């Protein structure tokens, strides 16, 4: 493999290239590879993780916005050339690559767009049974946090409504070039068997976002925009704050609201 310095990390793209091959192998090995044959790596950079994915019995695709990285990958991973997609993951219609086939997502994600990557994954959850990758440690912990935690919020609830989230291990700044100022964390999301909610999903997203935007208020106060009946607001669940409720209780709350407003 060519010199690590061949591609210069670009600050505006949030690039921190992983240099430690043992960690790259560990991340590649987090996927179970069950129920799908395609994997999409986001932001492969110089391919330290890609190399280990290519050894597996799957079809690896990579999506990369950085022209210099794309050039490097084409020159160094010849067998990958026709599966390098020079696109912006957040803006690109992934059905152009996968049609309606299932695929997993993996990557060492740029910190500045990592939450948006998760939200896009949630939109495509019917096609994405597994998701694994590296985030800023705080974000990875937030995604996996449970009710009662200070960091439990919109990202935690919406992700865990559809996926089992597991924080796997912490990665120090020293294994990156350039080193970030914070630790990183690797997590794994496995889609739940029953990932369709027993309530209106659009309403669920709206209830969660509205409730957590005023997380210090009780639900009786933060959900006023729904014009709920006095009878429903008398339910003890409305005396709690959203961060006190588990994902299943928040789904239950949405069902109560749905019945009330219909």
Describe the structure.
- This protein has helices spanning 21-28, 50-53, 67-76, 95-98, 114-123, 137-144, 154-162, 201-213, 219-222, 230-233, 247-261, and strands spanning 17-18, 38-42, 59-63, 84-85, 103-108, 130-136, 163-171, 176-177, 184-191.
- The chain has 262 residues and is of the alpha/beta class.
- It has a seven-stranded mixed beta sheet with strand order 4-3-2-5-6-9-7, with helices on both faces.
- α5 packs parallel to α7 and α7 crosses α11 (247-261).
- The model has no long low-confidence stretch (mean pLDDT 94).
Provide a brief overview of the structure:
The protein is an alpha/beta fold and about 260 residues long.
CATH names the topology of the largest domain as Rossmann fold
Largest sheet: 7 strands, mixed
Q: Poorly predicted ranges (pLDDT <50, ≥5 residues)? A: none
The CATH C-level class name of the largest domain = Alpha Beta
- Structurally, how many domains make up the residues? 2
CATH superfamily of the largest domain: Vaccinia Virus protein VP39
Classify the beta-strand content into a percent band.
15-25%
Q: What's the number of helices?
A: 11
First CA to last CA: what distance?
A: 61 Å
In spatial order, strands of the major sheet run 4-3-2-5-6-9-7
Mean pLDDT: 94
What sort of overall outline do the alpha carbons produce when their principal axes are compared? elongated
Structural class: alpha/beta
Order of helical and strand elements: EHEHEHEHEHEHHEEEHHHH
Named CATH architecture of the largest domain: 3-Layer(aba) Sandwich
Percentage of residues in helical conformation: 25-40%
Radius of gyration: 20 Å
Number of E-state strands = 9
Keywords: Cytoplasm, Methyltransferase, RNA-binding, rRNA processing, S-adenosyl-L-methionine, Transferase
Catalytic activity: adenosine(1518)/adenosine(1519) in 16S rRNA + 4 S-adenosyl-L-methionine = N(6)-dimethyladenosine(1518)/N(6)-dimethyladenosine(1519) in 16S rRNA + 4 S-adenosyl-L-homocysteine + 4 H(+)
Binding site for S-adenosyl-L-methionine: 16, 18, 43, 64, 88, 108
EC number: 2.1.1.182
């Amino acid at each position: 493999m060519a010199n690590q310095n061949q591609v210069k990390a670009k600050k505006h793209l949030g690039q921190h290239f992983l240099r430690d091959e043992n960690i790259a192998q560990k991340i590649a090995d987090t996927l179970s590879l069950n129920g799908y044959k395609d994997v999409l790596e986001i932001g492969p950079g110089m391919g330290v993780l890609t190399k280990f994915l290519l050894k597996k019995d799957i079809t690896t695709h990579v999506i990369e916005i950085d022209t210099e990285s794309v050039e490097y990958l084409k020159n160094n991973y010849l067998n990958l050339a026709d599966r390098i997609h020079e696109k912006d993951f957040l803006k690109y219609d992934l059905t152009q690559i996968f049609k309606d086939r299932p695929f997993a997502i993996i990557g060492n994600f740029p910190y500045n767009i990592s939450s948006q990557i998760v939200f896009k994954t949630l939109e495509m959850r019917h096609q994405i049974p597994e998701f694994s990758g590296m985030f800023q440690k705080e974000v990875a912990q937030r995604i996996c946090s449970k009710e009662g935690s200070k960091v439990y919020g919109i990202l935690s609830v919406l992700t865990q409504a559809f996926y089992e989230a597991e924080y796997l291990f912490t990665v120090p700044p020293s294994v990156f070039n350039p080193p970030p100022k914070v630790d990183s964390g690797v997590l794994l999301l496995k889609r739940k068997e029953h990932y369709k909610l027993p309530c209106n999903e659009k309403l669920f997203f709206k209830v969660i976002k509205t409730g957590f935007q005023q997380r210090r208020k009780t639900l009786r106060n933060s959900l006023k925009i729904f014009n709920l009946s006095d009878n429903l607001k008398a339910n003890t669940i409305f005396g709690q704050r959203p961060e006190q409720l588990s994902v299943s209780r928040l789904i239950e709350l949405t069902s109560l609201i749905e019945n009330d407003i219909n």
